[in-house]
Amino acid sequence: MKEKIDVLLQNAGLKRTRQREWILSLLVEGDVHLTAEQIYSALKAKGQPFGLATVYRTLAALEQSGILSKTEVDGRQSYYYAEGGHRHQLLCTGCGKVILLRECPAEQFLRAVEAEYGFAVTGHSFEIIGLCPDCRKKEEK
Hints:
single chain, 141 residues, alpha+beta, Arc Repressor Mutant, subunit A, three-stranded antiparallel sheet, three-stranded mixed sheet, flat
């Protein structure tokens, strides 16, 4: 994992710092998406003495370099994830849980749009909003 982080930082032209290494290890190893606050809490639980402001600054630098991407949920919460192509998610309106989809459900549709309209698609985002299984169970009670 350390080598993968080194390659990511080197390709982005960034120095290796302890903050970048720890934050990337959380996001890259687990292939997860986390908020700045969740990252801060995870680092604190692992005994890493980074302040929340440091986490935000590091995330901004990693996002600007293209190593991380950020998605906003309901315009109120930002989640960060390691870049590896675009991502799509399921958003639970009950608990705020975000579940990443493993595949892009829009690829075939986008090719059809390009063919029919002569439109060059340069990007897209896809969110499905609803309730996760846990929240559905709570509502059924």
